[in-house]
Fold this sequence. Notes:
Layout: H1 2-16, E1 19-23, E2 26-30, H2 35-42, H3 48-57, E3 63-67, H4 73-79, E4 84-88, H5 92-104, E5 110-113, E6 116-117, E7 122-126, E8 150-155, H6 157-164, E9 171-174, H7 180-186, H8 188-194, E10 197-202, H9 209-223, E11 228-231, H10 239-248, E12 251-256
Parallel strand pairs: 3-4, 3-9, 4-5, 6-8, 9-10
Antiparallel strand pairs: 1-2, 7-8, 10-12, 11-12
Amino acid sequence: MRRIVRGIARHWIRARGRGSTRIRGIQYWTDPYHIGFWRDVERKRWEPGLFDILERHLGPTSVYVDVGAWIGPTVIFGARKCRRVYCIEPDPDAYQYLLWNLRLNELRNVTPFNVALAAETGIRRMVSPAGGLGDSKSSLLPAPGAAGGALVPCMRWPDWLAFTGADRPDFIKMDIEGGEFEVIPSMAEYLQRERPALYLSLHAPLLDAKDRERGMDTLLNLLGQFPTRLGEDGRSVTVDEIRETAMAGFCSFLFTSAR
């Protein structure tokens, strides 16, 4: 009986063209094709530490750049708190839902971009190891045996800044399924000069063993300039702790100049 009721509810939400969720007490309209995901967001089952950090670090004057926005959960949340949000999502399937969620919430302070950040500007193939785009796992990393995918436009961070004329961000969130190991080095000069807060998701296990060691060394050398490093739970962590955790699995950390 419960399954039947849920099925009826799902069809009704899709026929209506929107669902809803509450994030930290605020209601948002949501696309009707990720009902279970939005329910998890509302029940704090999906990255609650990230929302805690966004809540603490974003304010009315903030400029927020969301790199790897997927269908937009952190975008719609950040937009209600910030002056301006720029969001970047290269996966064409996910991007359709991102736009849908922006329209549903009538968010006029968000500028979306259907591009990928990369080490070089050009066109590359994006695939998902799971087999289909739109599933939050799509990546520019090689995925032997993965079928399908899509050719997506890629831009270096300096080229993206020059093209968009984007305001200086106070906060950058980056979750790009292993792409961070090529993008962060291309941002090194900018990060050193501007020192925005950076919430970075690390996906070292997606790399080959040799590339994993080298990639982590490069990233941690570059990000050592940030005096404050926090885990998803808000606890201060050392560079060695970051390395150990990241080599073993997926994880996220906040790098900031604020003490």
